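Recall the central idea of this unit: under ordinary conditions, the amino acid sequence of a chain determines the structure it adopts. In this exercise we apply that idea directly, starting from the sequence alone.
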Amino acid sequence: MGSQSELESIKRTLKKIKMMNYIIFFMLLVLILLGVKDRSKPSTIPEEVVVQKELPAIIVGDDINNLLEDIQKTINLMDSKRVYELLGDYAQSFMTEQDIQKRISDVQYYGDILKIAYSHYQYLGMQDDADWFLLKCVVRFENGNGTMGLYIRIYGDTWEFSGLSIDIEAIESTY
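Accordingly, the structure predicted from this sequence is:
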């Protein structure tokens, strides 16, 4: 029979696998949202060209901080309805509140989110007449730390939160 520490190790490994499923789900969502290019057509932009775009002034400072606070509170409360309401109409058309509930419960293994801090952004390109940005953040959980990506869709003078990815980098041991 396995010792208690071996069982705990197996439990942690299974939780990590569960978290990876969470990450894969949101990455698939991003692929759906951004669309998959037709591989049969040659690209008109050389691969060496990297498009950079400034984060529009409509989403800076307080907007980012308020969104991070809302995400932290709602995930800590496991409030899938509120997380779903934070998403814009575009993202809501691809998922349900039940999808959100499943993903939030996966994250709860790591404990409450203690701190989220914005780090930088990445321009993802234009899709469906909207610019897409990934806001990258660092996250501190009760039982680990990692990174979080917030997918932001900007169209005209409006922006909406369109997705979330969380990557747990380290799990703290309680031995």
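DSSP finds five helices and four strands in the chain.
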